[in-house]
Amino acid sequence: MILAGIVLLASTASPLVIAHRGASGERPEHTLEAYSHAIDQGADYIEPDLVSTKDGVLVARHENEISETTDVASHPEFADRKTTKQIDGQSLTGWFTEDFTLAELKTLRAKERLPLLRKANMAYDGQYQVPTLSEVIALVQKRQSETGRTIGLYPETKHPSYFRSIGLPIEEPLVKMLAAAGYDDGDDAVFIQSFEVENLKRLRGMTRLPLVQLMAGSYGPPDLPGVTYAAMSTPKGLADVAQYANAIGAEKAMVIPRDSTGDLGQPTTLVSNAHAAGLKVHVWTFRRENYFLPQNLRDGADPTAPGHIAAEIAAYRAAGIDGYFTDNITEGVAAAK
Question: What SUPFAM superfamilies is this protein classified in (predicted)?
């Protein structure tokens, strides 16, 4: 197969398909329904991003600021909770999970985070609660029994240094809950991921579960000012990462950047360098809407219309990746075959 001058070779191994925040292309993200729908569609792993409540319960939200993903703004009883905080050096105004007990969070309902791109998902607004990690684990184990197949967990610790600084650490309760559910071995179907470094090193001393160092094309770990992901993605940097992690979770552009016209460009050496260091490579995030796709893989001018996501995934498979995050599980599973 040839795509925009790139020769694509068929991958010999099926990469892991990781449901990014659940089936978030079809249901409001980080809800039990989004995770269950992803499992129905064949995802290998589901991804709950984890933050803490005021009473120390881990819940699934992409951010601790929840105005974009819940109806908290429409609850007058919580109007006085709106505030401005500095999270990882960024000023954010809204409502934050650490200011709510679990009981209070359970009175909120999830909503679609990208309503302009995913209007159909808005039909589910107001129907689903914010799930706890305990509920997510229970769902996965129930669905494993029903389907007879292994369904993995891929939790991300969100802003772990910040939460530790306010007395609500994420690592300890996460490891404790996973171990209680039977996840404590390096071969178990769990990956724990983070954009930070020190909390992954802390986790390395607490669990044998595989750890994933997340990386982006710009900036660096929030807990290590002056360190860049660019430096961490060099052969030397990757060798250092391999001392505490089992894989990297790389932004797509770090593996195949877009060229000056916005088309899919040529692969970098990141995958081969990571493999040489003994690290698996998982990339984020594949989405089917034209808005998110390279120019040469869009279908028409409507930014909300589906484009050629399968061709995009094929290019990354040819580059040798070991797994990928996607909002669209049906397409992601089909492209992994």
Answer: PLC-like phosphodiesterases
Question: Does 102 reside within a domain?
Answer: no
- pTM score, two decimals? 0.95
Radius of gyration, CA atoms only, the chain: 19
The answer to whether residue 143 sits within a structural domain is: yes
For residue 83, tell me if it sits in a domain. no
**Which has the closest alpha carbon to 238: 282, 196, 199, 270?**
270
Domain around 299: 2-63+130-336
pLDDT of 108: 98
Please name the residue that has the structure tokens 């269950």. Answer: 36
Q: Which residues of the chain register pLDDT less than 50?
A: 1-11
Rounded CA separation 169/162 (Å): 8
Q: Per residue in 155-171, pLDDT tens?
A: 999 999 999 999 999 99
Query: What pLDDT sits at residue 112?
Result: 98
Please report the pLDDT score of residue 1 as a whole number. 33
Instruction: Please give the tally of structural domains in the chain.
Output: 1
Query: 230 Cβ partners below 8 Å, 6+ apart?
Result: 217, 218, 220
Q: CA–CA separation, 242 vs 9, rounded Å?
A: 28
Instruction: Look at strands 192-194 and 152-153 and give their pairing.
Output: unpaired
Tokens, residue 251: 């932004």
Calculated CA dihedral for residues 247, 24, 112, 195, nearest 10 degrees: 0
